[in-house]
Amino acid sequence: MIQETIDRVGQLLHDHLSQSKAGNTPALNQQAPETIAKDLQLKERLKQGFSGQDDLLSFVGTYLTHTNHLSHPHYMGHQVAVPQDLSGIPELIHGTINNPSSLYEMGPAGGTCEGFMINWMLDKIGWLNDRDLYDFHFTPGQASGVLTHGGSVANLTALAAARAAIAPEAWTEGNPDDLVVIGAASAHYSIARALSILGLGKNAFYPVDVDENEVLKIEDLPRVYEKAIADGKRVMCVVANACATSTGLFDPLDAMGDFCKNHNLWFHVDGAHGASAVVGPKSNSLVKGIEKANSIIWDAHKMMRVPALCTAVLFSDFTYQAAAFQQKGSYVFHDTEVVGVDSMPYTIECTKSALGTKLFWTFALEGEDKIAEFIDYTFQLAKDFYHLLEEEDDFSTPYFPQSNILCFRYEKFDIDDDFQKKLRYTIINEKRFYITSCDMNGQRYLRVVLLHPDTTVSHLKGLIEEVRRVAQTIR
Ligand SMILES: Cc1ncc(COP(=O)(O)O)c(C=O)c1O
User: In order of start, what are the domains of the chain with their CATH numbers?
Assistant: First the structure.
C-alpha cells in the first residue's frame, strides 16, 4: 500500500513538473483561501479522513494546481530555490522515519550528513584548514557550524554568539545597556528582529549610509563607529550584506573585515543569499574577504537548489558557537556519552529536521560542479537581462547586477510607484510570469530573482514583452 500510494503520488509529481517546466501551467494560480479550502474539501476530509487512495490522490492533484509553480521557467519571484527534481526524496524519507538530527542518537545518519556538509561549507569558506571532511568533532580554536531552519533563525543565533563574546554575563543577568550593532541601513529585517528578540531593541542598530543601490558606503563606517564610541556604546558586531535582499549587490566585505580586525570587532556576514557565490568559480570574487568574519550565515534553500528550509551558521572558532546558548537539559545534553555530535546545544531549535541530509542529497544528485555552474549561470543571466533592458527606451535599470537579482522599471506611461506596483500585481494575476517588486532608494521597482536552471534569455525577452502588454492594459 505504501509503495503503490507513493508510486501514484510520484506520477502526479512527475506530471506536475513536466507540465510546468513546459510552460503548460500558470506560473502562479493564486485563488482566495476560501476557494482553495473548498476545492481541497478541508472540512470534510479533516472530519472523515481520506475515503481511500483515490481520494488521497485527488487531494494531491487539486493541491498541486493551487501552488506556485517554481518549476515553471517564468518563476522569477522570491529567493526560494527551484529544487532539483528529486530533491524532495530526503523529505519523504524524513517524513516517513522521523529522525530529527539535532540529537545524534535520534538520527545518526542525518547527524552525520549535517556534520559532513558543515565541514564542506567550512572548507569552501577556507576555514577547514587541514582537517578532514570526516572530522566530526567540535574543537575549540577550530571553525565550526550548525544547520538551522532559515536565515532569520541563523542571524539570531549569530548575534546571540556575538553578544556572548562581548557580554558573557548577559545570558544570566540580562543585557548591559551599552551594546550596539553596526551595519548597512539596508540590512535584512531579520537583523532588527533579532536585536529586539535579544532584548537589545531595534534602536541598538546603528545604520551606516548606503549608496543609491543600497550598498554600504565603507567611508561612512568609521563615522558610525566613532559615533557609537562617543555615545558611550560598545560595538557588539558589524554586519555585512552578502548580498542585499532587494538589489542583490554585495557590501565591501574585504574592507569591512579589515576595519573589524583593526578595531577588534566581531564581523558577521549575512550571506543568506550570496554566500553561495563562494562555490561558483566565476562568482567567488564577490565574497572576497568573507573568511575575515567571526560568523557567517548561508542559506542552502536560496541558491543551491535545496528545498526550504536549510541554513548554515558558521563560526570561525567553535568557542563562539559554544557560548551562544547556555541552557542545560538533563534529558538531552549529555557531555560524555554521545557517540557522534549533538547540534542541539548550539541551535534555537530543540528538535530539528534532517537538514544535512537534504543538503547533501541535492549535491549528490547534481555533483558539486553542476551546482557551481548553476550559480555562475544565474549570475550571468541577470547580466544578460541588464543588457537587454539597456537596449530598450521604455525600461530603466539602476545598476549592473552582481548576483542573480535585478531591479528595473517600466517607464513609458507612468513612473509613479503605484503604477509599478499595479503593473506587478497585474502581471502575476495574468499568470504567465511570477516576479516581485521592492522599494529601493525611495522608489518602487519591479524585481526578478533568476533561480531556474531552464530560464534563458528568450524567457527574459518574453518578460519584456509581457510587461509592455500588461502596461498597455492598465495605463
Ligand atoms: C540578506 C538576508 N538575510 C536573511 C534572510 C532571511 O532568510 P530566511 O528567509 O531563510 O529566513 C534573507 C531572506 O531573503 C535575506 O535576503
Answer: 2-72 (no CATH), 96-366 (3.40.640.10)
Which segments in the chain show pLDDT lower than 50?
Answer: none
d(CA 4, ligand 1 centre) in Å = 38
This prediction's pTM? 0.97
d(CA 131, CA 313): 19
Query: Distance, CA 5 to ligand 1 centroid (Å)?
Result: 36
Measure 234 CA to ligand 1 centroid, in angstroms. 26
- pLDDT tens profile 82-129: 999 999 999 999 999 999 999 999 999 999 999 999 999 999 999 999
The CA 83 to ligand 1 mean position distance, Å, reads: 17
Residues with CB under 6 A from ligand 1: 79, 150-152, 155, 188, 190, 241, 245, 270, 272-273, 299, 311
